[in-house]
Amino acid sequence: MNDRLEQIAERLAAIEEELRDLAYERLAEVARSPDSDAGAAAALQEKRLLQARRAIAKAIGALAPSPADDA
Fold first, then answer.
1. Rounded mean pLDDT of 14-27?
2. Averaged over 23-51, what is the pLDDT?
3. Distance separating alpha carbons of residues 28 and 10, to the nearest angstrom
4. Where are the alpha helices (DSSP H) in the chain?
5. Pairwise CA distance, residues 50 & 16, whole Å
């Protein structure tokens, strides 16, 4: 993988980690007050964060070197 793509993948990995941390925080909020409006809002945010994290993970995978890159 060329250096620029590798740098982008590294930045995406950092973003993915940040999204994971935020989603964990939202899950903790849901666990503290599952029946409250704040808990419901946190649950919705967690789902959005999970969707974004999966999209970032997919982008990282797309940037991973393929066997054809070695040729």
1. 97
2. 95
3. 27
4. 3-32, 37-63, 67-70
5. 10
Task: Quick: pLDDT tens for 39-59.
Answer: 999 999 999 999 999 999 999
- Which residues make Cβ contacts (< 8 Å) with residue 28, sequence separation at least 6? none
How much is the pTM? Answer: 0.82
**Other C-beta atoms within 10 Å of 62: how many?**
11
Size of the chain, expressed as the number of residues it contains: 71
Domain boundaries, the chain: 3-63
Neighbour tally for 37: CB within 10 Å: 8
In terms of Cβ atoms closer than 10 Å to its own Cβ (0-12, 13-18, 19+), residue 26 is buried
pLDDT digits (tens, 9 = 90+) for 6-19: 999 999 999 999 99
